[in-house]
Amino acid sequence: MITFMYYASFIILIPGLLFSIFAQIWIKCAYSKYSKKQARSGVTAENVSRDLLDKNECFGVSIAHISGDLTDNYNPKTDVLSLSDSVYGSSSIAAVAVAAHECGHACQKHQGSFLLRLRSILVPITNIGSRLAVPLAVVGVVLELIAGGASSTSVGTYVVCFSIILYSLSTLFALVTLPVEFNASHRALAMLKDDGVLERDEISGARKVLTAAAMTYVAALVVSFLYFLRFLIILSSVRGKKK
Predict the structure, then answer these.
(1) 211-237: per-residue pLDDT in tens?
(2) Which of 8, 34, 119, 200 has the fewest CB atoms lying closer than 10 Å?
(3) How do 80-83 and 73-75 pair as beta strands?
(4) Distance, CA of 229 to CA of 81 (rounded, Å)
(5) Among candidate residues 32, 54, 42, 49, the one with its CA nearest the CA of residue 88
């Protein structure tokens, strides 16, 4: 029974992993398509970022060039908006959309977004929890098996339960991240429209890029939840064997 449940716990991950692959393909295709279409305004993503930040009174945010592809990010601790190689000096619709999205995060920080603050608080806690969760789960399962026929709750059960709590932080982080990312994209499209950087048909292209990007965060939440469910199945199977 425990062997069946163990393999079943792997099977439930398949839909999430497939969705994650689909989301990655979607964003790469959307970004590739609109990175080849230049905005008629001809303004680069770097200049768009500075303009949007200033118009939204985010004067303290600095813009930096970061290496890599789609490694763009905004760090609320350092107040630095980093644009990747393919975005920084580009005036493509995709580059402008990505840059505006990161500006959306900067606006969240400077306008006191609760969810952004919560996500920032969860980052170090989640990193520790995700590193310890799996090793602790393995230790807990081993202790459970060693306990053998003991009917009472063993130390192993508590260890596995604690590992589940630690891993649940990753799921919570993914859940909090979703509205933060959606809101940043909503802000980005509104700013681009109001600023006139992109024309109406170009806004549609930017929306497609940001929607595809948002799906990667949805996929991350689904995968995290399925891994969390897998932890519960493993614990249930080990406890079931002892009864």
Answers:
(1) 999 999 999 999 999 888 887 877 776
(2) 200
(3) antiparallel
(4) 36
(5) 49
> Which amino acid, residue 220?
A
Residues 6+ apart with CB under 8 A from 92: 34, 35, 36, 37, 38, 39
What is the CB neighbour count within 10 angstroms for residue 137? 22
Residues 216, 222: Cα–Cα separation, whole Å: 10
For tokens 């649940």, name the residue: 168
The pLDDT score that the predictor gives to residue 142 is 79
Distances (CA, A) of 241 to 9, 35, 148, 150, 153: 16, 55, 9, 11, 13
**CA–CA dist 163, 153 (Å, integer):** 16
In residues, how long is the chain? Answer: 243
Spatial neighbors of 218 by CB under 8 A, at least 6 apart, are 19, 23, 178
102 is catalytic: yes
Q: Which of 46, 102, 181, 202 is catalytic?
A: 102
Nearest to residue 20, comparing CAs of 223, 162, 172, 241? 223
3-state secondary structure of 230: helix
What tokens were used for 154? 């063993």
